[in-house]
Design goal:
By secondary structure, the chain is an all-alpha fold. The protein has 4 helices and no strands.
């Protein structure tokens, strides 16, 4: 959920990864898994949801 919140704020995968000490690919994977669960298809929809 923390990754989703940061993505909704407009941060890139690379920026999120740097803050959380993860790889950008790991961040992308978590977002890929979270989108269907939240019923969104893009980062723009995340901002409206959060």
């Amino acid at each position: 959920m923390h990754i989703v919140r940061l993505a909704a704020q407009g941060l890139s995968n690379r920026d999120i990864a740097a803050q959380l000490f993860l790889s950008p690919r790991t961040v992308g994977h978590h977002l890929y898994k979270a989108y269907p669960k939240l019923g969104v298809a893009s980062r723009g929809e995340l901002a409206a949801l959060v």
